[in-house]
User: Fold this.
Amino acid sequence: MIHTPNDLKRASRLIPLEPFGLRIEARESGQPLKICGALLESLLRAEKLVCFRNFQKLTPAELLEFAKSYPRAELLHWESGPVMEMKVDPEARNYLFSREAVPFHFDGAFHKIPSFLVFNCLQSPLGKQGGETLFTHTQLLWDAAAANEQVLWRRLVLTYRTEKLAHYGGTVTLPLVQPHPRAKGVVLRYAEPVTSALNPVQLEIMGVLNPTEFISRMKARLYDKRFCYEHAWQEGDLLLADNHALLHGRNAFSKDSPRHLRRVQIL
Assistant:
């Protein structure tokens, strides 16, 4: 069992990611991942995103066991249970299960907002075929904003609407700027409007004169390399992300490319 940062350094290679995050690679391919929950909590608090690579592959039961090892972990259950299979479904009524690009969002807006997301890659997309997951660090974005922008953003209230065709739907209204529930600092509760024919999401913004201009400017910042990390999946990757501090989305991927992730959410 890995209990301390020194234990972690001896058992693996630590690779800082840009502009944030940490990848932890097993020194011997296929070695079991046994890390204590307290250390995992400390890593996520500092890095916001942690990826384990080249460790032993996990079954669905082992993935759940890993997620439950997080201190005070309570798993979010959907109609299908706590483990969601994120892969293409030809009968899908939601863009998440298509090959389309997924705009930036935070999970749980129409249900319960989880604190952490756990992704496990079973099949990675083919090289240069798309399918990367994007993560934007909203605390970095906030810190880089001008003082007058921060004043404006604190006044904004956003309403999201979507029809319940898959596992979520309805209407929710939230302030853009909120305190991080588990850490210091603020986060941006923002999700881009979804124009896909599969379960579109409408966004209304109260407090700004030109919502279209605001959405356009925010889009440019969300994809800015100073704040945005693009994760190219490898089979077996186990990735944990702070769902409060980060927004995430997905690049579209080719019809000839596989892509299968399992996802668990920790409240």
